């Protein structure tokens, strides 16, 4: 069910509170069937939870900071309910064989992977109508986040964080860098190719920074290419800081 403009309760899903929450999943009921992505935080797996195919984000917790990041992402996901936001199915806390706390976030499984992967796969036919709908899906998800009270800034909106299901529907995922807007913020985060100039320049920013990132995603949908080509972090950053988006010459 879509909820627009509702209020958010913050910090409800602490690690200690998982056992008492309705989101708890028993580790014995969760089967990890294939690794589908790897990141600095841990891994993402295709899984099966009591007959439901799911995606499982595994986070190895070695420090208090790791724990806080897990709590923040899980708590936020538990409060988001929209057709264009990846839905939380549950969370699991488990002692790994390596001796650290293994935290698992169980979510929707999106069959086609990320939008970025879909766009660079030239064997995948995407009509203009399909790409238009993909753009609309992402916009609706972003509008929902910004309509909440307080607004939620994704802060890393990009094609790798937009997931695609078997019907080419798009949902926003990966809320590890998201935060509630408290007036304005100055913390740098995100991926330079998609990051707004004001963020790269260390200036205050708000939901408009997500809108810039969304604009880069629109360029990707039109060009089916990587923004700024193979440019280095410095080259990309310099272009973005100057307010120069990706070149329109690559758009058919």
What is the topology?
Elements: E1 30-39, E2 42-49, E3 52-61, H1 64-79, E4 88-95, E5 101-107, E6 113-114, H2 115-120, H3 128-147, E7 152-153, E8 162-164, E9 170-172, E10 179-180, H4 197-200, H5 208-223, H6 233-241
Antiparallel strand pairs: 1-2, 2-3, 3-5, 4-5, 6-8, 7-10, 8-9
Helix pairs in contact: 3-5
Number of domains: 2
Total beta strands: 10
- Report how far the terminal alpha carbons are from each other: 37 Å
Structural class: alpha+beta
Order of helices and strands: EEEHEEEHHEEEEHHH
Shape descriptor reads: globular
Residue-averaged pLDDT, rounded? 82
* CATH topology tier name of the largest domain: Transferase(Phosphotransferase), domain 1
Task: Write up what this structure looks like.
The chain is an alpha+beta fold. The chain has 2 domains: 27-107, Phosphorylase Kinase, domain 1 (2-Layer Sandwich); 113-250, Orthogonal Bundle (Transferase(Phosphotransferase), domain 1). 28% of the residues lie in helices and 22% in strands. The protein is built from 6 helices and 10 strands. It has helices spanning 64-79, 115-120, 128-147, 197-200, 208-223, 233-241; strands at 30-39, 42-49, 52-61, 88-95, 101-107, 113-114, 152-153, 162-164, 170-172, 179-180. The strands form 3 sheets. Strands 1-2-3-5-4 form a 5-stranded antiparallel beta sheet, with helices on one face. A 3-stranded antiparallel beta sheet has the order 6-8-9. A hairpin with a 2-residue loop joins strand 2 and strand 3 (52-61). The longest helix has 20 residues, at 128-147. It is globular. It starts with 29 loop residues before the first strand and ends in an 11-residue tail after the last helix. The model is unreliable at 1-5 and 181-188 (pLDDT under 50).
């Amino acid at each position: 069910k879509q909820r627009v403009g509702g209020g958010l309760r913050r910090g409800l899903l602490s690690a200690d509170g998982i056992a008492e929450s309705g989101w708890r999943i028993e580790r014995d009921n969760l089967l990890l069937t294939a690794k589908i992505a790897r990141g600095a935080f841990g891994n993402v797996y295709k899984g099966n939870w009591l007959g439901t195919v799911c995606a499982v984000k595994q986070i190895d917790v070695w420090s208090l900071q790791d724990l806080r990041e897990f709590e923040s992402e899980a708590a936020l996901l538990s409060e988001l309910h929209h057709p264009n936001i990846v839905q939380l199915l549950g969370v699991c806390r488990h002692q790994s064989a390596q001796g650290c706390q293994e935290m698992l976030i169980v979510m929707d499984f999106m069959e086609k992977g990320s939008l970025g992967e879909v766009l660079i796969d030239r064997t995948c036919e995407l009509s203009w109508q399909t790409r238009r709908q993909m753009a609309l899906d992402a916009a609706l998800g972003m509008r929902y986040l910004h309509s909440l009270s307080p607004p939620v800034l994704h802060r890393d909106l990009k094609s790798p964080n937009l997931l695609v299901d078997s019907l080419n529907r798009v949902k926003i995922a990966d809320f590890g860098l998201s935060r509630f807007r408290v007036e304005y913020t100055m913390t740098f985060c995100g991926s330079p190719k998609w990051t707004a100039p004001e963020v790269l320049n260390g200036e205050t920013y708000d939901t408009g920074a997500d809108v810039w990132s969304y604009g880069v995603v629109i360029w990707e949908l039109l060009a089916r290419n990587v923004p700024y080509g193979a440019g280095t972090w410095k080259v990309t950053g310099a272009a973005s800081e100057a307010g120069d988006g990706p070149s329109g010459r690559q758009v058919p």
